[in-house]
Amino acid sequence: MIESKIICIDLGSVKIIKTNNSMSYQELLAPPQEYSSGNVISRLVDSLGFRYYWATEGLIEKDLLYKPSDEAMSTYVTIEHIYWLSIIIANAPRKATSVRLTPDDLSKLTFNELKEKTLDNFKNTSDLCVGKAEKDFQDFKVIIQTHDGSKKEFPFWNLIHGPISDALYHVGQIVSFRRTTGNPINPNVKWFFGKVEGLVV
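Given the sequence above, the corresponding structure tokens read:
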């Protein structure tokens, strides 16, 4: 195990803590042997985690502050949004209510903490879904608390074409943004295989 070295960078509203601690999803584990409902969803979320990990790995100040236009979200704000999506994703198998984050909630988190919490949410979701049967998904619910305090409940289908698909979309944006800022993703990542050539953990 490599000793962690932490470097803090003050960006004003953007706080980065760089660390060489390994997190989940550097590589994908071997897939389940059965194509059950739960295993397929678990693998889908794992794949999202793998792509998110490498899309956000090695980002620096200019990458995080970049946005393609004045009206667009910056890379950092996009990462905050993916964190919110990961909360909804993680809460669905537990039928827990997702309460929208406030600017104060987000201001307390560093970039590294945002990334780690997001990856943890993906991992927890995967663990809760693996091995589940079709009937189990009838009980999984997307529950979101609205601004007036009321709750809206949706079936698990909405999680697939909603937050999961939305998160994949935004991960792709981060990949595009960092290419624009001259800091592309590690070319050794093999997306088709879920592996990284020459990775030493």
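The beta strands are 7-11, 14-18, 97-99, 141-145, 151-155, 189-190, 195-196. Try to locate this feature in the token string yourself.
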